[in-house]
Amino acid sequence: MRVVEGARARRGVALMGVCNVTPDSFSDGGRYLGADAARARVDELLAEGADLVDVGGESTRPGATPVPAREQLARVLGVVQYAVDRAACVTVDTASPEVAAACLDAGACAVNDVSCLREPELARVTASSGAAMILMHARGTQDTMAGFSQHPDGAYGDVVDDVLREWEEAAARAKAEGLSRAALVMDPGLGFMKNARHSLELLRRTGELVARLDVPVAIGASRKSFLAKADHDASPTDRLGASIAAALHAASAGAAIVRVHDVRATRQSLDLASLLLEDGKREKGP
After folding, report:
1. What is the per-residue pLDDT for 51?
2. Which of 194, 224, 239, 267 is the catalytic position?
3. What CA–CA distance (Å, rounded) separates 209 from 211?
4. Residue 115: which region, alpha, beta or left (left: phi > 0; alpha: psi -120 to 50)?
5. Residue 54: in which H helix or E strand, if any?
6. Set 8, 75, 259, 267: catalytic member
7. Is there a contact between 183 and 126 (Cβ–Cβ < 8 Å)?
8. How does pLDDT run across 249-263, given as a tens digit for each residue?
């Protein structure tokens, strides 16, 4: 995606802002469910500096009930069209080929698939539109997830090795359906069928993910439950500090995209870190 390339040239990483058009997302469920509120959220994200606007109509929290395609479209299609009219690069957060097709036809630039390509048709739809796909690692569906960071500790051996192997299997399925590898972005799926130790290890080893892949890497840590390792009593909306630290780490390790709820605060942190680094290089001289 050219938008990602341009953002990386400016800041080192692209900022994907979250617009959950749902009644039950884990951190902001219901806030942007109405059409006016969702459009205002798009405006807010763009004003704060989002490079990508991720619009989703189905919660991916543990235990969430799957939402039929028709209902997802009723929630998100108008929002996607509004964001596209605002010249936003829109990603549609869905595992439904029907929802993806309609949103891509409306001008979305990519599909954000949190299912690890559960439905191969999703790759065909994406390929036929010439769009990109953010392909996230996951095991199973949201309604079968045990709870926030409650996955069994022994579910993975080396979590990076296991996630990469399973992600490559999904990437191969996408290729078989006609989706070029050049159209893929890898997301390790922090928090999805993983406990806090697994997610922290994946985040810590972002640089290894980047080094071992020939596609861009996206990291979505914002407000997630594993961040409570740094503050056990913090609710999702009280995890801003940890979320920013995660974004800074991911960016410094070479991630191409960070998916965040708090765009302005994250942008400020990244930009100041860059300024400080530049000042330090000037002080040292040649």
Report:
1. 98
2. 224
3. 6
4. alpha
5. strand 52-56
6. 259
7. yes
8. 999 999 999 999 999
